[in-house]
Amino acid sequence: MYVHTDDITIPDPDTIVWKYLDLSKFLDMLLCRQMFMSRSDKFEDQYEGTFSEPTFEEIRRIAQSNPEFVDNYKSHRENVVISSWHINEYESYAMWQIFTKNNEGLAIQSTVQRMKDAMAPENRYEQHIGEVKYIDYKKEYIPFDNNFFPFLFKRKSFQYEREVRVISDLTKHNLHINEGAKVNVDINQLIEKIYIHPKSENWYKNLVIQLMQQLGFDFKIEKSDLESDILI
Q1: For 52-107, how does the pLDDT look when each residue is reduced to its tens digit (9 = 90+)?
Q2: Domain of life, per the record (predicted)?
Q3: DSSP state string for the chain
């Protein structure tokens, strides 16, 4: 007997979210005043946007009378773009390790509400924000009556990501999407605080601060809890 998942989780507006990225991606965001969203089938996890076994069995029955049904779902992944954010009240040592290299990089701290407000002027693409649900792909069912649902589920092996996603379906725009797409954002609304890699050297921290000042941004820069002095 298969277990059906509960309703899709809509994150609380005050939920704190993080994006860990290298300096080049951060500067690209500031210069373009746009947020990059990756094409869903370019993620490392090959299961992105696919279905669990119980759901696939139902789709296969539908496809017997409509052979194009499965092909449409496969091609659909090429037109869906995603921006991934990490839910956490505090910064994450693990996320620093995974998403930054050579003790360099930054973390953007925001909230779900700030993300929504920052993208409000973006009228080109329909966007959906949802919290990823981690399930057993052998037992649990993924609903497919909404085009966004398959992209809001992942295997339990990825629970450490604690992910909130901004998802856009660009199918109707007839675009050729290579690695992804950029969407306009209000940078000052999106970014609440900046954390510079806790193990970075002073010259790197000073470089980041200088670059932001030259570009006309005055974000609050917090000292990482991971570089606090030892109280002993």
Answers
A1: 888 888 888 877 777 777 777 777 889 999 999 999 999 999 999 999 998 999 99
A2: Bacteria
A3: -PEEP-PPBPPPTT-EEEEEE-HHHHHHHHHHTEEEEEEGGGSS-TTTT---HHHHHHHHHHHHH-THHHHHHHHHGGGEEEEEEEE-SS--HHHHHHH-BTTB-EEEEEEHHHHHHHHTT--SS-EEEEE-EEE-TTTEE---SSTTGGGGEEEGGGGGG-EEEEEEE-GGGT---SSEEEEE--HHHH-SEEEE-TT--HHHHHHHHHHHHHTT---EEEPPGGGPPP--
Domain boundary assignment for the chain: 3-226
How much is the pTM? 0.89
Backbone angles phi, psi at 130, to 5 degrees: -150, 155
Average of pLDDT values for 11-35? Answer: 95
